[in-house]
Amino acid sequence: MLTLLKDLRRLRRQLDLPAPDHARSLAVRHVDAGSCNGCEHELTLASGPHYDLARFGFAVVASPRHADVLLVTGTVTTRMHAPLLAAYNAMPEPRRVVAFGDCALGCGVLGLASELAGPVEDVLPVDLRVPGCPPTPAAIAAALVELVG
Ligand code: SF4
């Protein structure tokens, strides 16, 4: 718990730095491109009262038109290929893509079955890779802070 509090204080200090692109806040659109839902559980935890990422200026938004960041979980299935591209194309510039979790990075348990379009970087330009199966809420916070500079 003490380590987490120290991490959060460090993140708060980092957020006080100027961020030219995103002005110290990020609107995040999450797309499940083929996840087992393990990554989603961690995302839900990160948004809950214990970690409360909202206090650092991060908000999960329902529409890609309002988003700065597209956070993708899971290996991209063929069925989710087109919807994922549509979400990305609807986002305003500047936009960033986070590949979240080992499946999104292409090293997940599913491998490369014929029903899969591949890892996120085969479909979209990935700005940030967050490894883990699943990544922890602390890793989520660190990744988003890296994006705001
Ligand atoms: S990285 Fe792990 S938790 Fe996340 S979708 Fe893949 S198998 Fe599930």
Strand order of the largest sheet: 2-1-3-5-7
Give the tally of structural domains: 1
CA radius of gyration: 15 Å
**Bound small molecules, deduplicated:** iron/sulfur cluster
Number of separate strands: 7
Shape: globular
Average predicted confidence as pLDDT: 82
Percent of residues in helices:
25-40%
- In the predicted model, the low-confidence regions spanning at least 5 consecutive residues are 15-21
Order of helices and strands: HEHEEEHEHEEH
Summarize the biggest pleated sheet: 5 strands, parallel
What's the helix count?
5
- Structural class comes to alpha/beta
End-to-end Cα distance: 25 Å
β-strand percent reads 15-25%
Report the top-level CATH class.
Alpha Beta
CATH architecture: 3-Layer(aba) Sandwich
Give me the CATH fold name. Answer: Rossmann fold
Entry summary:
This protein is α/β, with parallel strands linked by helices. It has five helices and seven strands, in the order αβαβββαβαββα.
What does this structure look like?
- With 149 residues, this protein is α/β, with parallel strands linked by helices.
- The chain has one domain: Rossmann fold (3-Layer(aba) Sandwich), CATH 3.40.50.
- Helix content is 35%, strand content 19%.
- It has five helices and seven strands, in the order H-E-H-E-E-E-H-E-H-E-E-H.
- The strands form two sheets. It has a five-stranded parallel β-sheet, sandwiched between helices. A two-stranded antiparallel sheet has the order 4-6.
- Strand 1, helix 2 (38-47) and strand 2 (58-60) form a beta-alpha-beta unit.
- The chain is globular and about 40 Å long.
- Mean pLDDT is 82; it is low at 15-21.
- The structure holds iron/sulfur cluster.
- The site of iron/sulfur cluster has 13 residues, from helix 2 and helix 4.
